[in-house]
Amino acid sequence: MAKDREGKFHARKGKPSGPGKTEGSTGLKNINTDSIDDYLEIADKYTVGEEQPAPNVHLRHPNRNPDKGDDRTGQKRDTNNEPNASNKTKTQTFKTEWTGTVAEELPPFLSKEQIASLASHQSQYSISIYMETHASGVEKNEQKDTIAFKNVLQQLTSDFRNKGVDMTTVERLLKPGYDLIRNGQFWLNVTKGLAVFISEGEFKYVRLPFAPRSEVLMNTSYYLSPMMPLITARDYFYLLVLSKKQAKFYRADQFGMVHIPVPEMPDGIGDVVHFEEKDDKKHAQTGARGAGGTNFHTWGSGPDFKENIAMYFDEVDETLWKDILSTENAPLLLAGVGYMIPIYKSVAQYKCIWDEALTGNFEYEDEASIYKQAVKKMQPFFEQRHNKALEMYGNQSATGLTSSIAEDVIPAAHYSKVWHLFVAKDQHIWGHFDQMKNEITIHANKEEGDECLLDKAMLRTIQNGGEVHVLERDRVPGGSKIAALMRY
Question: How many CB atoms are located within 10 Å of the residue 348 CB?
Answer without folding.
Answer: 21
